[in-house]
């Protein structure tokens, strides 16, 4: 485990892909597709979202988000990145060309603290403060 933390902390600039979000019109249909395609299982299902994960917690989670209709003007795919320190990482990413869209405040289980950023072409992604423990354990 120590080697894994060293690799994640230093060789990836303290970032880890935690979750990939996908907008979809029919969440149940997408659950059937992605669970078969990836061998993932439903980790959480509630309202208009479902979160799928690998049975052994290997790799990032897949978050399916229901939308009324798909819009080409909006991101349909969003990366959520874990960082030991989202403030520091957001600043570093800004030097690479990312733009801060807004600060994310934690409101319990549904939203984690960090930043919503946009890459140089405007694709939004989140950098979430997860602390060092996020790099020394499997994806949970």
List keywords for this structure.
140 residues; alpha+beta; 2,3-Dihydroxybiphenyl 1,2-Dioxygenase, domain 1; 3 helices; 36% strand; globular; disordered N terminus; VOC family protein
Walk me through what this model shows.
- The protein has 140 residues and is α+β, with helices and mostly antiparallel strands.
- The protein has one domain: Roll (2,3-Dihydroxybiphenyl 1,2-Dioxygenase, domain 1), CATH 3.10.180.10.
- It has 3 helices and 8 strands; from the N terminus they run αβαββββαβββ.
- It has an 8-stranded mixed β-sheet, with helices on one face.
- A hairpin with a 7-residue loop joins strand 3 and strand 4.
- 23% of the residues are buried.
What's this, in brief?
With 140 residues, the protein is α+β, with helices and mostly antiparallel strands.
CATH architecture level-2 label: Roll
CATH topology: 2,3-Dihydroxybiphenyl 1,2-Dioxygenase, domain 1
Please describe the biggest sheet, giving its number of strands, its sense, and whether it closes into a barrel. 8 strands, mixed
Spatial order of strands in the largest sheet: 2-3-4-1-5-8-7-6
Give the class-level CATH name.
Alpha Beta
